[in-house]
Design a protein that fits this description.
Low-confidence stretches: none
CATH class of the largest domain: Alpha Beta
Number of strands: 16
Pathway: Aminoacyl-tRNA biosynthesis; selenocysteinyl-tRNA(Sec) biosynthesis; selenocysteinyl-tRNA(Sec) from L-seryl-tRNA(Sec) (bacterial route): step 1/1
Organism: Paracoccus aestuarii
Cofactor: pyridoxal 5'-phosphate
CATH topology of the largest domain: Aspartate Aminotransferase, domain 2
Helix content: 40-55%
Number of helices: 20
Strand content: 15-25%
Shape: globular
Strand order of the largest sheet: 3-11-10-9-8-4-7
Mean pLDDT: 95
Radius of gyration: 27 Å
Largest sheet: 7 strands, mixed
Subcellular location: Cytoplasm
Keywords: Cytoplasm, Protein biosynthesis, Pyridoxal phosphate, Selenium, Transferase
Bound molecules: pyridoxal-5'-phosphate
Distance between the termini: 48 Å
Oligomer: single chain
CATH superfamily of the largest domain: Type I PLP-dependent aspartate aminotransferase-like (Major domain)
Amino acid sequence: MTGFRALPSVDQLLTGLPALVEAHGRQAVTRHARLRLDAARAAIRDGAEGAAEAARLPHLLAADLAAAAVTGLRPILNLTGTVLHTNLGRAILAEEAIAAAKAAMAAPLALEFDLRTGGRGQRDDHLRGLLCELTGAEDATIVNNNAAAVLIALNTFGQGRDSIVSRGELIEIGGAFRMPDIMARAGTRLVEVGTTNRTHPRDYQDAISGETGVILKVHTSNYRIEGFTAEVPAPDLAAIARKTGVVMLNDLGAGSLVDLSRWGLRREPTVAEAVAEGADLVTFSGDKLLGGPQAGFVLGRRDLIARINRNPMKRAVRLDKIRIAALEATLRLYRDPDRLEDRLPVLRMLARPQAHIAAQAARLAPQVAALLPGYRVTATDCASQIGSGSLPTDTIPSAGLRITGQGGDAPDRLAAMLRDRDRPVIGRIHDGALILDLRCLDRDADLLEALA
Ligand SMILES: *Cc1c(COP(=O)(O)O)cnc(C)c1O
């Protein structure tokens, strides 16, 4: 038992470590000290020497507390080449949106309060006008994310009724969002029509009955069916829905408010176009191409939006003041499309010319090589993706650094080392090398500091 006697008490340990107590607080140091003392006693029971265990305690305790003090939510460098990376938080926000969110966090604001009349207001009012102005929609409601937008729309108009979807559009997107499951939870009966590759107007017409609540069209943004294919265009579906009195819902997914071909990206239908095509309701995300915080929008007919707002589910999926403020500031930027590229980070990154990124790669390659002894660093062409299921078959020509080292596991070892930095650097492993796509690196210094 002499071994145990070499160990200090918790109090003795804390008294000897005033700097740790000062830095981390008495409670945290006490908690970690108990854990370490338990471990030391177990080691001594297994034959370790008491004095040696005691001597290691201050060092181990300091390391534990330092590790516990590091947040997993610290900023990273997204050099994966996927601009809207769901696992890395999707869109980063415009300065204007960050300032608005910060102000909303720091002081009360007229969230549901009408400053003119002093009466009650509605939180969505801050966004409705802007959304209608930018898209031509009659009305809008705003919820937690696009999954919630689809869920509440299906529940409002499809509960206990049929919802008709083409077999070519029964999508799964990452994170277990599968359209058939969402429909089940919305309480609507899924009626599949057509085939995987071809669906015709008569398929929808034949499926419509007195039980039909919704015709759902889903933008198959994360895959593409090619070859012998046919889908029913939204205007035709809208006409079928109108004639039969059911609600036509067009889930756009990424939904851009501007025509991206202006910035050299592939043309995708805009939200305004989807609204003009006659859909009763259009849903899309706030943190995909829009470039704002996580949110979901349902735009469309005023009478239908009013019914969604009366659904008790709305309260469960509504937005908080911080995101409403950030969204409002983000949407305002769209009033000036000419300056959008300078102000909206998502668009700035997507629109960066390849030559610009290639010059950055050439400039950074020798500097990065100097910081990674034992590795070979060369500038390389590569291909970025928009991400979040947006235009997945389209890549954007980009450039970056190709890093190789000794041994087959060199890229994995390097990737692990870079994840462990104060500011983790996340690349992608491809063809025996770690690729750092520089599309999303605004400042060279950020990478050099992270690696130093
Ligand atoms: C991304 C996406 C969703 C889900 O949107 P979240 O904002 O991630 O909830 C739904 N439908 C489609 C077609 C999508 O692309």
